[in-house]
Specification:
By secondary structure, the protein is α+β, with helices and mostly antiparallel strands. Helices cover 19% and strands 32% of the residues. The protein has a six-stranded antiparallel barrel.
Length: 370
């Protein structure tokens, strides 16, 4: 018996004005939330820097690197040489030690003596870092200078069970050392108010958001202090009253309210079947056939012209398919996904249909697949 074919007709009403009315077109408005400036922008120069180092984790219960991991053996030989003990790498067989890469992000706000977390990752064939202890490891930046030193017990936050049943949770070859690194060298200080101006960098560059930020700042201070350098950077002059207290000025800027704008976007995770969409996404007229589903997104008739399907195609659909879902109004991706869910479409079906609609040029927004 053939599978039931479901026709989904989504009506999108387009209002067509006269040529005179077209001159006063209002921009589309969406209910985007009002947030603080600090939630959508950062101060230029306030950033993190990556540091890394090569180290050894000791104290493992036979789950360290095997004899095939030459990095482990050579590092141990070099360490013993530093203590005045000469041992040939060929004579070493140590399953209680693992060679690891130690990484961390160093903020500009940290000072000498401050601590930060580090991530420890096995680079050999170790089976687990559980119960291990990271030996002192210098952490250097891309310029080759050492900025921190890490040492401490490794926490993997998971377990590995071996035997008849077996089992594993999380990655037992990757762990962290909480507060395991001590800052030994501070990053070069950054002048946030260079040339008497502070620059705010948008986390999501957008011309509309940048323009709104300029408007918010100028209206709050009743001065033309801000200007948009581009879609991602807004430059703000420091008022005379804050010349000696730039930190207070930045703190005040970060608390200002702003309504950010965002591109219409649909995010798809093919591995989990997850579809996340924004309210701005709209769909034009298009027809998609997928397996036992036939999806037709049509435009209703409007005062400005005949934009509906109608005609022979509309009559044919009405004659052949009786199980029809009709959604009126400005249909968007949410309407489409809700309708597909209502008729029992699987997440894979929904993802395939959205991809096809985007490929046809009928989905107005970014389709991101992760």
């Amino acid at each position: 018996m053939s599978k039931k074919i479901v026709v989904l007709v989504l009506g999108i009403i387009l209002l067509w004005g006269s040529a005179a009315g077209a001159q006063n077109i209002e921009p589309l408005r969406y209910d985007t939330p009002i947030v603080r400036v600090k939630d959508v922008a950062r101060v230029q120069g306030d950033r993190e820097n990556q540091v890394f180092g090569l180290g050894l984790v000791v104290g493992l219960q036979g789950t360290g690197d095997g004899s095939g991991s030459r990095a482990n053996i050579q590092m141990i030989a070099n360490m013993l040489e530093g203590f005045g003990i000469s041992v040939s790498p060929n004579d070493l067989r140590m399953r209680n030690i693992a060679a690891v890469m130690v990484t961390a992000d160093l903020p500009t706000s940290l000072r000498t003596g401050d601590r930060l977390d580090v991530t420890v990752s096995s680079i050999g064939d170790a089976r687990s870092l559980q119960g291990g202890f990271l030996l002192q490891t210098p952490l250097q930046a891309a310029n080759g200078q050492v900025y921190a030193v890490a040492q401490g017990p490794v926490s993997i936050g998971g377990f590995a069970v071996r035997g008849g049943s077996g089992g594993q949770s999380n990655h037992t070859t990757v762990g962290i050392v909480p507060n395991g690194a001590i800052v030994e060298r501070e990053l070069e200080p950054y002048d946030f108010a260079a040339d008497g101006a502070v620059s705010l960098v948008l986390l999501e560059p957008d011309f509309t958001t940048a323009s709104r930020l300029v408007q918010v700042v100028n209206e709050f201070y009743q001065q033309d202090l801000a200007r948009a350098r581009d879609q991602g950077t807004v430059e703000i002059r420091v008022p005379a009253g804050y010349a000696s207290n730039v930190v207070a000025f930045i703190a005040e800027l970060e608390e200002l309210p702003i309504r950010p704008d965002a591109n219409a976007r649909v995010v798809i995770n093919e591995r989990t079947g997850t579809v996340v969409m924004g309210a701005q996404v709209r769909i034009a007229a298009v027809a998609v056939s997928h397996g036992n589903l036939k999806v037709q997104i049509a435009q209703d008739r409007s005062p400005g012209g005949d934009l509906g399907l109608g005609g022979e195609l509309g009559e044919e659909l009405e004659q052949n398919y009786s199980n029809t879902t009709v959604l009126g109004g400005n249909a968007n991706v949410q309407d489409l996904v809700d309708a597909l869910n209502a008729v029992g479409a699987t997440p894979r079906d929904i993802i395939a249909i959205l991809q096809a609609v985007k490929a046809a040029g009928a989905l107005f927004g970014d389709l991101i697949i992760i």
